[in-house]
Amino acid sequence: MKMYGLEMPEKTFGIDSALIGAFVPLLGLVLFIIISVNLVVVPKFEEFGELNSRLSTMENQTARTVEKTKYLQSVNQEDLQRDADFISSALLPESNSYFLVGVVGKVASKYGFQLDSFVINPGKISEAPKAGMDGVVKIPVTLSLVGPTLRHLELIEGMETSLPILSIDTFDMRSDNGVSRLDLKVLAFYVEGRSKVDINKLTLSELSLKKEESDLLSKIGGYTIWDNLSSSTMQKGQGVEFRDYGRLDPFSL
Amino acid sequence: MSAMSLNLLPSSAKFQASKIRLQKRIRMVMIWLAGGWLLLLIVAFVTNWVLGMRIQTATAKNKSVTDSYALMSDSILLTQDMKHKAKLVAGVLGNRFEYGQSFKIINVLFDSGINLDKYELGESGVCKVEGSLTTQEGVDRLEEIIEEINAGEREGLSEAVLVSLSTGKSQGWKFVMEVNLR
User: Fold this and answer.
1) Is the sign of the CA dihedral A71, A75, A77, A81 positive or negative?
2) What is the rounded distance in angstroms from the CA atom of residue B158 to the CA atom of residue A47?
3) What ipTM does the predicted assembly reach?
4) Cα–chain-centroid distance for residue B177?
5) pLDDT of A187-216, one tens digit each?
């Protein structure tokens, strides 16, 4: 007998070949379905899982961004700028020892003390002040102040409640006939560069002020800001025009 | 087929009839299978289309939200800069030795008969104090103060030692003591 173009015996393995022939299309279909399900449908359904998780990630991200945007819109920009300026005033605006001497001199004069002498150590290249892990550079200055003994405690407290933040590293005081001489090593702090942040990765809690940060702002809120210094060192580089002195290059002679 | 029923057809005709029935059943099974497969395919493509549309919408919404968030980048950077500096300032203040507080404690330590001539505060929190006295009672009072400190009766101070005590004919008493600040 002929089946699907092939010459077949009457019986195959004791089963009628016509009976086997009846199952061939079914087997072919089943095979086709198995192959197509494995090659098309199953990968497609796996893709749905990925798409679903991508969708939910995107929706979550959108929801978080909306929350952050709402929070930022609710923040008073003037208050934010004021707080940021206030925190910035706790640190030196530049790595400048003269500025620090100026600050200490101002505080001292407020309490009747005079700056008798000061030593700054800009340092060697090999010993240049290096920022710590947190990017803070300590600016030291050694000073001698002379003034009334009765007000030395006020002076120390005045220095400890000043902005930029001053830290007394060493202290030596001698009093004689109501006059005190204070030998101090004072440190102030300067931050190198700005912190680098990826704004999209920030969480809402990272955007909002923490309790410790609010407490810090309240604490230093009572400090005195000495930011109205107008020393020539502070103005260097601003509006200074280039001047040609007409000096000859000794190596071109 | 019931056992009592009688089939009078010849065996070849019976075989043909059962073959036709089988083919019919197989065809039905094939139709169901093909229908199921087609349905699965339709479900897959419809789901794909729906998910694609949802992702498209979500992407557009996300982009618009992200864009409006990015417009606030100045404010965000300002906040982050402030938080960074606040952390540094808090660290500096946390590690800073409060001289004012320590000197307040030492200043109230001595009565009016005892003059303080020199302070020197070391890194370990030990304050070297040099002072002068005019009377013998003042020396007694100084020793009492040192005992009070060592007995833990003076807040903020943990230990005190009289390092030296000297006097001359025409001058009062001079003393040097070390006080350990808590």
Assistant:
1) negative
2) 71
3) 0.71
4) 44
5) 888 887 666 778 888 888 888 888 888 888
* Contact at CB, B72 and A66, closer than 8 angstroms: no
Of A23, A156, A174, the CB nearest to B100: A156
Q: B-contacting residues of A 178-207, CB under 8 Å?
A: 189, 191, 194-195, 197, 199-200, 202, 206-207
Distances in Å between the Cα of A35 and the Cα atoms of A32, A201, B46 are 5, 44, 21
Q: Give the domain ranges of chain B.
A: 11-96, 99-181
Greatest extent of chain A over all pairs of C-alpha atoms, in Å? 136
A32 Cβ neighbours under 8 A, 6+ residues apart: none
Q: Do the Cβ atoms of B120 and A173 come within 8 Å?
A: yes
Same-domain status, A107 and A221:
yes
Answer CATH for B99-181 from 3.40.220.10, 3.50.50.60, 3.30.1360.100, 3.10.20.310:
3.30.1360.100
Q: Are the Cβ atoms of B76 and A217 closer than 8 angstroms?
A: no
Strand-pair category, A179-191 with A224-225:
unpaired
Residue B94 half-sphere exposure toward CB, CA atoms < 13 A: 10
Domain range spanning residue A157?
A: 94-192+211-226
On whether any CB of chain B is under 8 Å from the CB of A17, the answer is no
CATH number at residue A135: 3.30.70.60
pLDDT score at A138: 84
